Amino acid sequence: MADEEHDPQLMEINETGHIQELERNFSLLSVCSVGIVTGNTWAALGGSIAVAIYNGGPPGVLYEFIAVSIFYWLVAASLAELASSIPSSAGVYHWASITPGPKYGRMCGWFAGWWNTFAWIFACASISSISGNIVVAIYGVFHPEYVPSIVHVFAGYIIATWLCCGTVLFANRALPMINNIGLFFILAGVFITILVCAIMPSRTGSGYATSSFVWMDWSNKTGYTSHGFVFLAGMLNGAFAVGVPDCVSHLAEEIPRPRRNIPLAIGAQMVIGFITTFIYIIAIFYATNDLSKVLSAKYFPLAKIYAQATSSKGGTLGLLLLIFFPMICCLIGAYLTAGRCLWTLARDDAVPFSKVLRPISPRFKNPFNATIACGVFTTILGFILVGSSTAFNAIIGSFIILSTFSYLAAILPFIFTRRFSRGGEISSPYTNVFIVIYCFPYSMPVAPATMNYASLITGALSLFVLFWWFIKGGNYIGPALI
Predict the structure, then answer these.
(1) What angle do CA 346, 352, 353 make, to 5 degrees?
(2) Which three-class secondary structure state does DSSP give residue 277?
(3) Which residues, 6 or more positions from 441, have their beta carbon under 8 angstroms from its beta carbon?
(4) What is the mean pLDDT of residues 22-51?
């Protein structure tokens, strides 16, 4: 019997043409939870709210978020269409290998897989950084004299990194339940936060912001003279929050009926993410009574908004905890995705040390080594944060550019063959145009500390991927359509 279980001829071949190595632990509910938890849209936008405010003030944040969400719905619809046709844990890497055809598919998929993997590792670093900043903000609430130190943020960064990476490594069978709990934290957290921000200002006497402040008072603090360009560039902040529609696709080999369930999970992620975030943004802006204090905050500006909303240290602490726990759950989902991305490249021998990274742990039933590698990479990025916050921000700022490139590599070939719906035909030009816009400097005049280095990082990584193609590409086969 033991020999039969390991007989290659008796092993299940999944939809990708590979041996089914991962357990199908996830249900439709738990995979929807992964999408909503990993997307974590309201917390991601709240964690970067100060950056968003510079591009138009509160009205800019609201309308830019609506605009970018519409485009990402179209991107998500295109990815859902591909997921229903070719369900694979490789996601855009697999699709970009198939849609261009045999002549260009190998190279197109090669780049898409690398871009997508880099993007998810950088997403892990970004979420760890936000988590570290929240911890520092919690301490600062009760110690007004505290002067924030990057070393303290780094300590929180490292703890969050390995707490969440360790959860993915050692609790694979518990991940569906963990993500269901994370779904509760995210929905309960945003609901309670909205209620507190809607009710407390009238009880504490601080009062509400005017409707004009929330909906009409455009404020351009970027230095650019064109308000239209500021609006378009400001959509980057919304894209950071909403721009991960591919996350659940990387669980296609761990869920029954992936052709049906993955598109449903993508839809649930996008709809719930938009509704909760839009209401959340409105609530926190109505609770803001001094925007200048928010923008001049020494650490984590959202803490100032919460302090103005509640007028109490206890209330501020409570709201910060309500965003901290969803961030931790989000980071677990990010490592779950990043590890699968790297593993799918390794099983096709597309990365260095593939023999080390490709095995599935017989004990933990997951891509153990690939996930550890993602944690180590994220830790190295943390040391860059200590050395230079400008360099770190440049690296994680390329997350949207890299992920968008990977989506484009999968979607654009279908446009040329006219096999896509109208959603794909609209989303592709969007990605082309905004990749360029998102590379412009964040503000004018340009200084070394405020320069947008995303194009430099993306270009350097792409050159490395090209270099590795010349070394390994001759023997590389890549995913196939079966």
Answers:
(1) 75
(2) helix
(3) 450, 451, 452
(4) 92
Q: Quickly list DSSP for 352-387.
A: TTHHHHSPPPTTT-S-HHHHHHHHHHHHHHHHHHHH
Tokens, residue 238: 């919304």
Enter the pTM of the model: 0.93
Task: Provide the CA 50 distance to its chain's centre, in angstroms.
Answer: 18
Cα 83 to the center of its chain, rounded Å: 19
pLDDT at 16: 62
Neighbours of 259 (CB within 10 A): 13
Q: How far apart are CA 442 and CA 397, in angstroms?
A: 11
Helix, strand or coil for residue 29? helix
Rg of the Cα trace of the chain?
A: 22
Residue 289 — φ and ψ, nearest 5°? Answer: -115, -5
Cα separation, 271 vs 267, whole angstroms: 6
- Rounded to an integer, the average pLDDT of 46-53 is 89
Confidence of residue 248 (pLDDT cuts 50, 70, 90): very high
Identify the residue with better confidence: 415 or 454. Answer: 454
With beta carbons less than 8 A apart as the criterion, state whether 79 and 246 touch.
yes
DSSP three-state, residue 83: helix
Rounded to a whole number of angstroms, the distance between the first and last alpha carbons of the chain is 30
Dump pLDDT digits (tens) for 177-226: 999 999 999 999 999 999 999 999 988 867 899 999 999 999 999 999 99
Q: Which of 108, 104, 94, 114 is nearest to 409 (CA)?
A: 108
Closest CA to 428 of 21, 22, 172, 75: 75
- Round to whole Å and give the CA distance between 64 and 82: 27
Confidence of residue 415 (pLDDT cuts 50, 70, 90): confident
Within its chain, how far is the Cα of 206 from the centroid?
A: 35
Burial per residue of 357-377, b for 16 or more beta-carbon CB atoms within 10 angstroms, e otherwise: bbebeeeeebbbbbbbbbbeb
Q: Is residue 308 a contact partner of residue 76, using CB atoms and an 8 Å limit? A: no
Q: How far is CA 91 from the centre of its chain?
A: 15
Q: How confident is the model at residue 425 (pLDDT cuts 50, 70, 90)?
A: low
Rounded Cα distance between 105 and 203, Å, is 61
Distance of CA 228 to the CA centre of its chain: 26
